[in-house]
Request: fold
Amino acid sequence: HPLVDLCNAVSLAFALPVAVFDLDKIDGYLEVRYAAGAETYLPFGGEPETPPRGEVIFADGASQVHARRWTFRQSRYSAVSAGTRRALIVSEGMHDTAPEDVPALVEALAEEITAVWRPPRQQAILSALSPRLEFS
Reply:
């Protein structure tokens, strides 16, 4: 998908991970948390897996894991496709210059997406002090 290609290119340019989720395939909400050990992850190739207790995951209301090991292993559950109408794009940084690097990546990505698709957009930088994004 061209959006995935764009996100991969920006990820490489900034040396930061970028994940893209089809929001219509997420049940209720998406939460970044530690795995309890009972969630289900669907890899792109292979059988469903259960992330071990304590692994950082992106899970929805049905305990489906949409990414593991932060955003490094995305799931087939919410893969972007030709039918995608709403996407959530996530990047993360935990290094010393992340407070500057992540907003620069977000802005570059937003400019490219707007130039190609002109979608309605909502963006936020989440942190421990601001951990939640409500979709409008």
In short: Helices lie at 2-14, 98-116. The two ends are 25 Å apart (CA to CA).
